[in-house]
Specification:
The protein has 628 residues and is an alpha+beta fold. The protein is 27% helix and 31% strand. The chain starts with a strand and ends with a strand.
Length: 628
């Protein structure tokens, strides 16, 4: 058995691996960049080694520095987690060449499944059904356009080396193909150093079904049933669950058997996931389910599989890497209840889900009722350098309805401030009637976006609660003085001062304390009162004449949400624009973010050109509303 383990990753997954390793009596070594010097995974590990600057390419993607850290600390094995170097066959080979144990798939399997076009050809030969499309070597725009035209729109452009939703574009019409192709190739080159793509028929009512597989070094392979990851935004998973709703036993048996065939076709060892796309227009059926790709690593959503099977997949990884056989046979694995996972991201739904960064002055995550996998604690910071996920929230119930209700209740009480999150968005998705009945495909979010976006402003109950709490706080600070000392109503020579004015988000309201009663509570954070409603956090303070509040003058200012590079500027100074029109595109966090006009108006100011590097909150453009 492995005695010491270096985790070549960061944040949530590093903490999760450390937890299992510690339970198994295995010493752990963390690696960290400049930005992660005080990160939770560094604090939890038995030892930590600095490997470079904040940028991932200079730290977490430096295989040589990671291997050197393992040798320096006496670690016997390296676990890559997911992302970064987890599916890098060259790194896996270098680990083995250094005399270390690689906790993951073999380089052969990684290479065989790493390029989507080659993997689909291999799967077809193994009798695994694959989606119709173009996998050819001719990557000229003319040839790709011709193939897309022949397949018929809509089509999906996918980077052959892609993953995590990067390098992927849906195209609905031939006229849009060239622009989408160029954008996809740019993103693929930036993320994977490979701009090759394949073209697939886009399924109009698609469900994303994936099967967890596991193989050992003795030729044994099992599946641990399926997960449904259909609730996605821009091809990024938001809510996952296991088992898949609406999955009948016959379809499950067929899909899981195909997944095992796929794993055997590449002599698979370790944890892996076979991803399928299903046409759910008439329910789930094996005849309308096709192979998409294989992820030769642990998945972000693995906790839902652990919840329904009672298996610790990381423990299995460590035991299999140590040469042990799989601890169970296929017939020993059963489904127990239902599990649902939500990814809590530092992103703002009100700004098109742009990432939000900063210090987590308030981080109130569920305790006890849910499994919470996180890589941060209150007081830590979300930086612009890495994935913006704060935590994974996992509920397990006797059935799907129970798991959803539990997760929704807890997400609605999750409070994060001042960093914006998608908690309110998640809560609304979980409460949506279509989700409750399992009527979900990958277009669910786009089709229901307006209904899923949380309220941008607090409701009346929050204003009342804020006013009462802030009044008590002020009275407490002033001793016998303050507003509450004047609310008795017993003074004969003066009217009691019963009203105070509170401010939130640029708006202020007068609240009569005697005429209202608070129904909720808040929390004081950095001299602001934070109240959580349905997962959304609102910060209140006393409003003073001449202070913050009133009209917001900067609503038309388009600011950079994070450091990045301006890819394109799509408008000119003086041009009339309409609400939602794309103004420019910013590349940050290895993804492209379109910044749009907040209202109809005129481009009064334009401060950047394509190619410019900008810092967070830099003014990029300013829109002025036209006078009526």
């Amino acid at each position: 058995m492995i005695q010491s383990l270096l985790i070549a990753n960061r944040s949530e997954i590093a903490c999760r691996i450390i937890r299992t390793a510690r339970a198994m009596g295995i010493r752990t070594v963390a690696v960290y960049s400049d930005a992660d010097a005080n990160a939770l995974h560094v604090r939890l590990a038995d030892q930590a080694v600095h490997i470079g600057p904040a940028a991932a390419r200079d730290s977490y993607l430096r295989g040589d520095a990671i291997i050197a850290a393992a040798l320096e600390t006496g670690a016997q094995a390296i676990h890559p987690g997911y992302g970064f170097l987890s599916e890098n066959a060259g790194f896996a080979e270098a680990v083995a060449a250094a005399g270390l144990t690689w906790v993951g798939a073999t380089p052969h399997s990684i290479r065989a499944m790493g390029l989507k076009d080659a993997a689909k050809s291999l799967m077809a030969a193994a009798g695994v059904p694959v989606t119709p499309g173009y996998l050819g070597a001719d990557q000229s725009p003319d040839r790709l356009q011709a193939e897309a035209d022949a397949i018929g729109y809509p089509v999906l452009i996918k980077a052959v080396a892609g993953g995590g939703g990067k390098g992927m574009r849906r195209v609905d019409a031939a006229a849009d193909f060239r622009d989408a192709l160029a954008s996809c190739q740019r993103e693929a080159a930036a993320s994977f150093s490979n701009d090759q793509v394949l073209i697939e028929k886009y399924i109009l009512s698609p469900r994303h079904i994936e099967v967890q597989v596991f193989g050992d070094q003795h030729g044994n392979v099992v599946h641990l049933f399926e997960r449904d990851c259909s609730l996605q935004r821009r091809h990024q998973k938001v809510i996952e669950e296991a088992p898949a709703p609406g999955m009948d036993p016959a379809t499950r048996e067929a899909i899981c058997a195909a997944a095992v065939r796929a794993a055997r076709a590449v002599d698979y060892v370790g944890a892996g996931t076979i991803e399928f796309i299903a046409d759910a227009s008439d329910g789930l059926s094996a005849e309308r389910t096709w192979f998409m790709e294989m992820n030769t690593r642990l998945q972000v959503e693995h906790p839902v599989t652990e919840a329904i099977t009672g298996v610790d997949l990381v423990e299995w990884q460590l035991r299999i890497a140590s040469g042990e056989p799989l601890p169970v046979r296929q017939d020993d694995l059963l489904i127990d209840g239902h599990a649902v996972e939500a990814r809590l991201y530092a992103e703002d739904p009100a700004t098109g889900f742009l990432p939000s960064t900063g210090r987590l002055a308030m981080l109130d995550l569920p305790h006890g009722a849910l499994r919470v996998d996180t890589g941060v604690e209150e007081g830590d910071s979300v930086t612009p350098y890495y994935d913006p996920m704060i935590a994974k929230l996992i509920a397990h119930g006797a059935d799907r309805a129970e798991a959803i209700e539990l997760l929704a209740d807890e997400v609605e009480q999750t409070g994060v401030w001042p960093v914006a999150t998608n908690a309110g968005f998640i809560a609304r998705a979980l409460r949506h009637p279509a989700f409750a009945t399992g009527q979900v495909d990958t277009g669910f979010i786009a089709a229901n976006l307006d209904a899923l976006l949380p309220d941008a402003a607090p409701d009346t109950a929050a204003w009342v609660a804020a006013a009462h709490t802030l009044a008590w706080v002020e009275s407490d600070r002033l001793g016998t003085g303050g507003v509450w000392s004047e609310l008795g109503g017993l003074r004969l020579n003066a009217a009691p001062r019963s009203r105070i004015t509170v401010e939130c988000g640029g708006e202020h309201r007068i609240v009569d304390l005697l005429a209202t009663r608070p129904e909720t509570a808040g929390r004081l954070v950095d001299d602001r009162l934070v109240i959580v409603e349905g997962g959304a956090a609102f910060a209140f303070s006393r409003w003073r004449p001449g202070g913050a509040g009133g009209a917001v003058a900067s609503q038309g200012a388009i600011l950079a949400p994070m450091p990045g590079r301006v890819l394109s500027v799509d408008v000119a100074a003086g041009e009339r624009v309409v609400r939602g029109q794309k103004l420019l595109t910013l590349e940050a966090m290895k993804m492209e973010h379109a910044l749009t006009a907040p209202f109809d108006g005129v481009v009064a100011e334009l401060t950047v050109e394509a190619g410019a590097q900008v810092q967070v909150e830099a003014l990029l453009a300013r829109i002025e509303a036209e006078e009526a």
